[in-house]
Specification:
This protein has helices spanning 12-37, 70-98, 110-139, 145-172. By secondary structure, the protein is an all-alpha fold. The termini are close together.
Length: 182
């Protein structure tokens, strides 16, 4: 199998980066919601005395970014995975500039092509904004919490459009569009 994309399809590097991102995102959102549900961020929910400010900076709870007990371990893993997603996304963008895209699937309409382009842009923006705002929340204060949540919503809307387009062509149009990325 070829490493780089060409006019006939995606290469091994692009496919690996795509599916590695998917796996990390599933882990990240699962851990993120576990941390939130258990009050692991300490943002006024379930911790009482600790507002969660100063994590990673030797704050009141003397948190040193090590793998501690319980919620702190989940939070540490969440931060590490978020950082990996950010780095992977930046690498994906660079890789995208170095290798051509394959031709559009012939069955995609002009509207679907534009929708796919904009969806991809929003997804990449979210894959940068979510980890950056998450890191800012971790190292500073809750000032960006609303932005962090808003970027999650934008991400879920964009991923729904992305998956909807793929599933439409896979299940309704009976095309093997998903095969391009497998």
């Amino acid at each position: 199998m070829r490493l780089r994309n060409d006019a006939t399809g995606y290469g091994l590097v692009t496919k690996t980066l795509h599916w590695l991102t998917v796996v990390l995102l599933v882990l990240q959102f699962t851990i993120g919601y576990l941390v939130d549900d258990e009050g692991g961020r300490g943002r006024g929910r379930g911790r009482g005395e600790d507002s969660g400010h100063g994590r990673g900076r030797g704050g009141d709870d003397d948190y040193t970014f090590g793998f501690g007990d319980g919620d702190d371990t989940l939070l540490s893993v969440h931060v590490v995975i978020g950082s990996l997603i950010l780095a992977l996304t930046l690498f994906r963008i660079a890789w995208r500039k170095l290798t051509p895209l394959p031709a559009w699937a012939p069955s995609l309409s002009l509207f679907e092509r534009k929708l796919a382009t904009w969806t991809e842009r929003v997804l990449y923006a979210c894959l940068i904004a979510i980890p950056l705002s998450g890191l800012a929340l971790f190292f500073t204060s809750d000032d960006l919490l609303a932005f962090h949540i808003a970027t999650h919503i934008a991400f879920f809307v964009a991923i729904s459009v992305h998956l909807g387009l793929v599933l439409k062509h896979q299940l309704i149009n009976r095309e093997r569009l998903i095969g391009r990325m497998l």
